Amino acid sequence: MTHAIRFHQTGGPEVLQWEEVEPGAPAAGEARIRQHAVGLNFIDTYHRSGLYPVPLPSGLGSEGAGVVEAVGEGVTDLAVGDRVAYATGPLGAYAEVRNLPADRLVKLPDAISFEQGAAAMLQGLTVQYLLRRTYRVQAGDTILIHAAAGGVGTIVCQWAKALGATVIGTVGSDEKAALARAHGCDHPIVYTRENFAERVREITGGEGLPVVYDSIGKDTFMDSLSCLRPLGMMVLFGASSGPVPPFDCGVLAKMGSLFLTRPSLFTYAAKRADLLAMADELFEAIISGKVKIEINQRYALKDAAQAHRDLEARRTTGSTVLLP
User: Using CB atoms within 10 A of its CB, is residue 34 exposed (0-12), middle (13-18) or buried (19+)?
Assistant: First the structure.
């Protein structure tokens, strides 16, 4: 018998329970993974709180890394003993052992640790599609990333800088400003005392930006739009401050024929060929040193509730892993 974090009702971190589970043998098309590390992400709090409803009772978590213990019928591209990682399978990563669709697993290069793999997959693949597919950042671009000291933010700063972009980032404190700068952010803006939209206009000489990457949502949405130059793209990929209220799409025309998209990793990586190509580009960026995965917090998996408290209180920086 193994253990997993499960929740039977939505609510605060206290609803997370450490329970005995029996994953059983993998079904056809599945692989059973003994997990060595699990990634913690803000989307986990959305599932737990009910902002993103899921059928209950439920497991939690979207990414992890470990070793294949068994494969089901029809699985030919994975074998027992393979090191693997994932980020786009069904919920349930907060577990010691679990079964997963094999087509959601990618082989983890030996040069990347299990902790790096678990911390990098969801956030790193998110950054890959943001910078290379949703808006393809080019040398000479100036971009804005909110929460620049967070897990996604620090990867965006590093990767965009390696692409030759100038990076503006919002952060909540001087300590986080220093962290963002250390990861390639050229212009950290402490939003608690500076108006980021005004600072962006100052930095760009009034020109505005070709793209804004916004995971904050309600609190930053309109000001983010105002940072864009005509024909700029607003990429809303999260809502840590709450969902954006309904608004008149005519505003986009008035502000310069702006583009607005609400992308999801699960759409970009839905096809296995895309998932593999995205993972290959991410792993290359990590192995080459262009992107360093900063794991600044580690918790025992059974202490996931405390990890959620710290994440929601913005006491974390970089990436966080849970250790079974």
Answer: middle
Helix-, strand-, coil-residue percentages of the chain, each rounded to 5: 35, 25, 40
Q: CA of 32: how far to CAs of 5, 27, 39, in Å? A: 17, 9, 18
What whole-number distance in Å separates Cα of residue 133 and Cα of residue 131? 6
Distances in Å between the Cα of 233 and the Cα atoms of 71, 180, 184, 193 are 43, 23, 22, 26
Q: Which CATH number does the domain 2-121+270-323 belong to among 1.20.1440.60, 3.20.110.10, 3.80.10.10, 3.90.180.10?
A: 3.90.180.10
In the CATH hierarchy, which top-level class contains the domain 139-262? alpha beta
> Domains of the chain: which residue ranges?
2-121+270-323, 139-262
Instruction: Tell me the per-residue pLDDT of 69-88, one tens digit each, with 9 for 90 and over.
Output: 999 999 999 999 999 999 98
Kindly give, in sequence order, each residue whose CB lies less than 8 Å from that of residue 254, ignoring residues fewer than 6 positions away.
none
Contact 88/104 with Cβ under 8 angstroms? Answer: yes
| Residue whose C-alpha is closest to residue 63's, from 25, 91, 97, 27 | 91
Give the global pTM: 0.90
pLDDT, one tens digit per residue, over 17-58 is 999 999 999 999 999 999 999 999 888 999 999 988 999 999
Coil vs helix vs strand at 123:
helix
